[in-house]
Amino acid sequence: MMHIPSLKYKTKKQPIAELKEASVYRIPLQSYRSTLLPLVKIGDQILQYQVLAEDVEHQFAAKIHSPVSGKVIAIDEHYISLENDFQQQKITTEIIEFQQLDLERFVQVLKDFGIAGIGGAEFPTNIKYKVEGSEIKSLLINGIECEPYLTSDYAVMRHETEKLLKTIAVLNQIFQPEEIVIGIEKQHKELKKHFEKSFKNYPNLAIRIHLLTNEYPQGGELQFIKSVTHKEIPKGSIPANFGYLVSNVGTILAIYEALFNGIPTTERVITISGNAVNSIGNYRVKIGTPIRHILEELNIDAEDVDIVLGGPMMGKEVADLDSPIKKGSGGLLLFKKQQKSIENCIECGYCVDVCPQHLMPMQFVKGHQEDQNLLSQFNLDHCIECGACEYICPSNLPLMQSIVLGKVELQKMRYAK
Amino acid sequence: MEWIRQRLDKFKEPFGKGKKLEKYAPAINALDTFLFTPNHTTKTGAHIRDGVDLKRTMITVVLALIPALIFGMWNGGYQYLHQLPEYADGVPFMDAFIEGAIKIVPMIVVSYAIGLGIEFAFAIFRGHEVNEGYLVTGLLIPMVMPIDIPLWMVGVSVVFSVIIGKEAFGGTGMNILNPALTARAFAFFAYPTYMSGNTVWVHNASEIDGVSGETILGKLASGTEVPYNTMDMFSGLIPGSISETSTICILAGALLLILTKVGSWRIIVSGFAGAAVMALIFNSLPSLGIEGNDLTNFPWYNHLVIGGLAFGVVFMATDPVSAAQTMKGKWIYGFLIGFFAIMIRIFNPAYPEGIMLAILLMNVFAPVIDHYVVQGNVKKRKKRLATVKEVKTA
C-alpha cells in the first residue's frame, strides 16, 4: 500500500447539496458482471421507484428502479432512457416491519430494493448478506474512502450519522455479531468523536471506531478486513464465509432508505472535484442522471478535460457526456489532460512495493505483451485492479491496460481448455 | 520557449510519418522530449500519476553523484600535487581541483559523446526512443576509472558496455549486468596494466620519482604498511579510482537516493551489513587460532570505507535493472554483494577490487533470487490460506 496526496480538503467541508432534476434519465443496464434485462417497453408510462430491469437469468446484479415518474423513450443494450414528467407519482411500497425482520425476509428486501455495493463494484448486497449458517463474528462498516478527491462517504458519515446508526442497529439484531467496527481513515479522525457522541443513544451496540492509516487502497474489501482483523482472505471468496460482513457506509444508507422509507436505491451522494474545476462539492444525485446535466447545472466547462466517473485511481474515463451516474460512482472528477510517455520497464520494483495483494505487476505487462503463461504464473487472478502500480510506475507502463486485457486473455485460455 | 517550439516543429517536419527521414525520427524525438514534455500520452488506468518518472529518477541519481564527483576531481589533483616539493606547505583547493578536472572532464565528455552516439544509432536502427538511462551510466563509467587511464580506453570500454552490456540484450531495462560495471570489468581485464598496480591511481605517479601511488588494498595485499588512518579513509584522502575514495561524499549521495526512494535502502543497508559480517568473520580468525594476513586482520570498519565498496553498494548495486526486484530479494542480493566483495578482496589479492566482481556476480543471480523468493511467498501464502476455513468462490 502507499500514500497518495488525498486532496480531500477541497470538498470535505461541503454539505450534501441537492441538484435539480434532469428532464431525461439514462438508466444503466450494466452492473457488476452482468447485464440487466429490461422489464419495460418503449412508450410505457412508469412510476417513480418502479422496477425497470432485472438480471433474470443469473440474479448476479441488483435490480434497478426508476428514479422519477415518466415515459420510456428508448432502450438499447446499455441504457433505458426515461423522460421525466416531473409529477413524482410514486409506486406504493409496503412498510417493512423491521422489528420482526428475520434474515430470509431481510435478504429479500435487499433484493427487491436493488441494494448493491456503493463502494464501486456494485456487488449485490443480498448475495453478500446471505450468510446461511456461517456465524458472523464482526460486522465491519467500511468508511474508508481511499481514493483521492472523493468525500462522498465522508459526507454521509458526517451528515447522516443517525440514519447509519439506526440501520446498524437493525443489522445487529439480524446478524448478532460479536462486534461492530466502523473503519475510518486517520485524516478524518474528527469523525471518531462525532460518532462516539451518537453511540450513547445505542447502549446495546458493541460498536467501536477503528482508525486506519491514510494508505491506498485501504478501502478495498480484502485490505480493509486485513487491516481491521489481521486476517487475510483469498480473492474471490465471500467474506461472510469467514465470519466477516463488510459494507460501505453508502450501502448502509441505501439500506436505511429501503427499510425506513421504502425507497429503493435510486440516488447516491457523489463528489464533484478534480484539478480542472472550480465548482466542487458533494451532491445527492439520482442514478441515471446524465453527466451532461450535472455539468450544465453547475456551469462546468468540460472543454479539453478528462472526465472521470468514480475515483481518480479506479474510475473510468467518460467518452460520452450522456453517460449516466451509476450506483457505484462515488465521484465525477475533471482532470487536466495528462502528458506522460511510456518508457521501458527498468524493473525498479516500485509496483512490487505498493501492490496490496503482494503481486509483481510488472510481470503482467510482460505477460500481456509477450508470454501469456506469466499471467497465471504470477496470479493475475488475485489482482484487485486498484491501479496503485500504475500510479507509482516511473516508466508510465500501461499496467492497468495489461491487467484488464490480461484477465480477458486468462478467461479465454480457461475456456479453451 | 514558444520560439524554440516552433523552430523544433518546423525542423521535425521531414521526420514525420511517411516522410523521407522518418527512420531518424527517434533521434529528433529524443531531443524534443529532453526539452519539452512529450505529447503522446497513456489513455487507460489511473487518472493521476505520481510525479516521479524515469527522467526525474535518472536526474536524481546524477545529482547524488555530484558530491563524489567533485571530491574526486579535487582528490585527483591533491594526491599528485601534495607529493611535489613545491606544494610542501599545503595544496590550494583550486589548484588541486583544476589539476583533477583537466584529467576527468575529458573522460566524461568522451564517455557521453561515444555512449550517446551509440544509443542514438541504436534508437534509429531499432525504431525506439532514446532513454535517459545513459545519463547515469555515462557519468558512472569515468567515475570508477583510474585517473590516468588513456581516453581511448575509456572510449573502447564505453563501446563495449553499451553494445555488449546493454543494447545486445534489448536496451534500457533489459540488460542483465550493470553497464557501468561492465565497462570497468572490460577495461580491468583487457588492459590490466592500466587498471591495477601501484602507479595508476595517482595522476602522473609513474613520471615522478618518489611519488607513492598505491591504494590501501594494494598495500595490504603486498604487505606494506598502510600510512592512512580511518579518518583519511572515511573522508577519502587516499589514492583510488576517481570517485570511489570519499565514503562521506558517497553517503551524502546515498542519503539523497534513500530519501527520494530512488535507490533501495534495503540494498544499501544489507550491502554494508554483508561486508561487515564477512570482515568480522575474518577479523575473528586469530581468536580461533588461525593466523591471518594483513588483509584478514584489517579492521572490519576500515574494510567498509576503503576501495570501491561504498561506491559500488550505493550507486552500482542499487541499479534497479540489474538488481533483485522483490523486497526480500533485495535484502539477500545486497547482503551477498557485501559478503562476496570482502571475500574476493581477501582470498584473491590479484583482484583487490572485490566489489566489482561481487556485483557482477550477483547481477547474474538476481533473477534466481527473485524466483526463489516468489516461490517461497507463493508456498507460504497457500499454507496460510489453507488454514482458514474452506473457500467458497463467488
From TrEMBL, chain A:
Gene3D superfamilies: 3.30.70.20, NADH-ubiquinone oxidoreductase 51kDa subunit. One of its GO terms (biological process) is electron transport chain. Residues 336-365, 374-403 form the 4Fe-4S ferredoxin-type domain. [4Fe-4S] cluster 2 binds at C355, C383, C386, C389. Pfam families: Complex1_51K, Fer4_7, RnfC_N. The keyword Acetylation does not apply. It is found in: Cell membrane. Its EC number is 7.-.-.-. The complex is composed of six subunits: RnfA, RnfB, RnfC, RnfD, RnfE and RnfG. This is Ion-translocating oxidoreductase complex subunit C. The gene is rnfC.
From TrEMBL, chain B:
GO terms for molecular function: FMN binding; oxidoreductase activity, acting on NAD(P)H, quinone or similar compound as acceptor. The keyword Transferase does not apply. Pfam families: NQR2_RnfD_RnfE. The keyword Translocase applies. The gene is nqrB. One of its GO terms (biological process) is transmembrane transport. Its cofactor is FMN. It comes from Zunongwangia mangrovi. This is Na(+)-translocating NADH-quinone reductase subunit B. The chain crosses the membrane at residues 58-81, 101-122, 134-164, 237-260, 267-288, 300-318, 330-348, 354-374.
